[in-house]
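As a warm-up, study this chain.
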Amino acid sequence: MSKEIQNDLLDCMLTVCQNHIKNEISKASFVSVIADETTDVSSISQLVVVFRYVLSNGQPVERFWGFTNPPGHDAKSIAECIQASLEKVVAKPEKLISQNYDGTNVMSGQHAGVQAFI
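Now compare it with the structure written out below.
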């Protein structure tokens, strides 16, 4: 199997998983976003987004949403990537009850970090 076919297959699987997550979140009362950012040795920033919510049976779950590459290392760039993920999943902004960020002050600063932009 060629690398292109493998990537297409992985993209299809991600789409199926993300549609399942969207469906679960649409039925959930609340949702939390969890994000972490890291920079690799070639100075490329990678952001992971995870959603946490409670299923209709009362079971709390954490679901991996995806990786993105923020255009910059500042709080605004990272917040825009997280916001783009949220807009795909959360129809009502008031459903977002918690933001959890790890890493540097750019991520977690209450007044100038990502939280201030979301």
